[in-house]
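Entry 14. Ran structure prediction on the chain below.
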Amino acid sequence: MKKRLSKNIEWSILVCTILLIIIGLIALFSATQNTEYDEFKKQIIWVAISIPFIIAFTLIDYETIAKISPVFYVVMIILLVGVLFTEPINGATSWYSLGFASIQPAEFTKIFVIMVLALVMSKMVAKGKKEISRPTRLLILIAIFAVPVLLIIKQPDYGTALAFFVAFIAMLFVAGIDKKYIIAGILIIAITLPVMYFFVLPDHAKQRIDVFLNQDLDPRGAGYNLTQSKLAIGAGQLFGMGLLRGNQTQLGYLSPKTTDFIYSVIGEEMGFLVAAAIIVLYVVLITKAIYVAKTAKDNLGSYIAIGIAGIFLFHMTENIGMTIGLLPITGVPLPFVSYGGSSLLCNLIMIALLLNISGRRQKAIFMEE
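Output, structure tokens:
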């Protein structure tokens, strides 16, 4: 079994992940020289902590993990409720402080929401392809999705909530939901977005959208971080200014340079070639994740893989897009590259699940009738 698992695993996914982690660690080393490399050291520790989780989530059959995922889903809901009563950090109640580290439950919730959705979807589809399009069944899936997302929005953490949304839509599409629901969903989003802007979003979120639409609106206030990010990436040109030599990075103009704007650090100090290579690595990783979904041995594996692909696609697009001014700033980290223990561990567990599914695949079931 282990021999077949090793033979079938999509090793290119792991290679891309390792390369992204290495680039991220190099960028963190440069970005943290003024703080005695504190976050750089912590990130290395988190990489080491992640190794046993990668091994476990790769070797234990994903069907077994999926069967117990409802228990962890409930635990995550409890943690998401509890975190709302913690001390706010930068205006958000998203972390449990353990003294030596901070844990963000929203990150780990991604894993178990995808697992539970995939488990329920696979059981529905087993009864018939059109089962998932029945209103009562669809409402069950929406409830599973909506409860944690609404709690995450309450923190508030709109970026992470959007990542859930992209994963959910991707899973519904692959599961073969009736196209009328997709059209209806698009219409509902088109109607609710203006309503949310005027009546739901807090002032700081509105400011980010206003600055995105007009980047000269408040260059020294709400638009400051974006302006510095674009200056940093532009200054890097083809080969970069060199490690530890970036003006915006080392003089403290980029903030937060180890998380939201780590891509700007890379663009400034390592240049266009490395910045472009990161995009290529993500494209390969996401493409391979979709391929794993296509060739999974069952619907359960397919839905898990496509949900993970959706998460990575959103994070890559949003983080890189916001650093170059193509998308509003939402505080979404760049997977495997940005500093963050919860984010890194969660993302590596999702990579392990992709390796797990790919190792047990037999034939293509993507778009199966």
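The radius of gyration is 21 Å. Will compare against last week's run tomorrow.
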